[in-house]
Amino acid sequence: MATEKTFYLETFGCQMNAHDSEKVIGTLRRQGYRQVEAEEDAGLILYNTCSIRDKAEQKVFNRLNDYKKLYKLGKRFAVLGCVAQQEGEKIFDRAPYVSLVSGSASYRKLPEMLSRLEAGESRITGLDDRQTDETFETEFTARQNPYRAYITIIEGCDKFCSYCVVPYTRGKERSRTSSSVLTEAWRIADLGYTEIQLLGQNVNSYRDPEGKRSFAELLAAVGEVPGVRRVRFTTSHPRDFTRDIVEAIDSVPTLCDHVHLPVQSGSARILASMAREYTPEWYLERIAWIKSAKRPISISTDIIVGFPGETADDFIKTMDLLAEVEYDCVFAFRYSARPNTPALVMIDSIPDAEKAQWLQVLLERQREIQRINYSKHIGDIVEVMVEGANPARGQISGRSSQNKPVNFEWSGPIAPAPGSYLRVKIIGAFPNSLVGQAV
Ligand code: 5AD
Ligand code: SF4
After folding, report:
1. pTM (2 decimals)?
2. Which ligand has the shortest distance to the CA of 17?
3. Annotated domain spans of the chain
4. Ligand 1, residues 57, 160, 164: which to mutate, most atoms within 8 A of Cβ?
5. Alpha carbon distance 351, 247 (integer Å)
6. For 381-438, which CATH class?
């Protein structure tokens, strides 16, 4: 009797990775595998890994260590994603019970790699050096959310910021044609998805291989697909942020009122050392475009604290920029040295305790900024897409077009279903969420 093929997949890292996992799940199902919820029940255990900061990859190795005994029970392990691409065959040395190691640019070869695994082979690799293969979605992509669909429009990154592993783990930039993105958007809308998120490590450095549409034109065209109610895009690089993106948001109502524009630092000297290719002034000009839009657009960012050579003076410049932009959300990270990156050899003399202190100061300041920003919404009526409901407690949660979490109470007989849209009056605010009342 043939035993059933089962798999367990765990995903670390960014939305690109989450979406890659949807493609991997689709591929495994097509190969006759059934997904299970517990590692114990799976014949094949896969980790789709992230290596953006060091704790991310350490987590994966710890996990692999915890489970090495399962190999003796006949279970097989695969390491996918960024740690796989970065560490390559070294993973077999560090964790000899791993059978398959593959980076994201090789997922198209997964069916073949799986067949070899099933035939009993070990040390199977998908580590394309050129990393130019495309794994844009297919109809097999197993979307995990019934109302929000991700579409990859560009893979890889050619920016080579001095701290960042992405160009090494995800390879060169390659865009999908705008016609095929739109075909996918129509198909998805037909299936009932109402929110589309266009993804790319540098989503706005998108270049249509057919030369038909700019990024802003593609954005607008996706927003005009019948049935689509919300379009988001992430992550934008300031270098490629053009004014027509703001114009598109202004003229197409389904494009969400939110731009994520990572700044990384407020110091020109540190930005140069990071190879970001812009100055604070240049960045602030883009922010001014966004702020001059006809409808208020929420702005969020990423910041790295404690980059090699950063001084207290540089840090103050980042704090000043924070106060000037008044972001609605900031993801701040302590710098972490990454393999292969140019910053790895830069002298990093700031003590960890000092970096931690800066991060703390920054997050506290940002909390105050958000407390003020969020309280300005009191009295507004916003459209909320419902994400979760706790019917027993009459609690509903969702997000506004600005991507702000909104919680409200519900007393009607049938709680609104996840994925539905409601108008909500904002009656209270916290630094990270709004409180409302359905109207
Ligand atoms: N150290 C700390 N933070 C990093 N990021 C990327 N690389 C590093 C690193 N080596 C942060 C950046 C990026 C976000 C996704 O992760 O802020 O925008
Ligand atoms: Fe992590 Fe970057 Fe890879 Fe995403 S692309 S999984 S953030 S290393």
Report:
1. 0.94
2. 2
3. 5-126, 148-372, 381-438
4. 164
5. 44
6. mainly beta
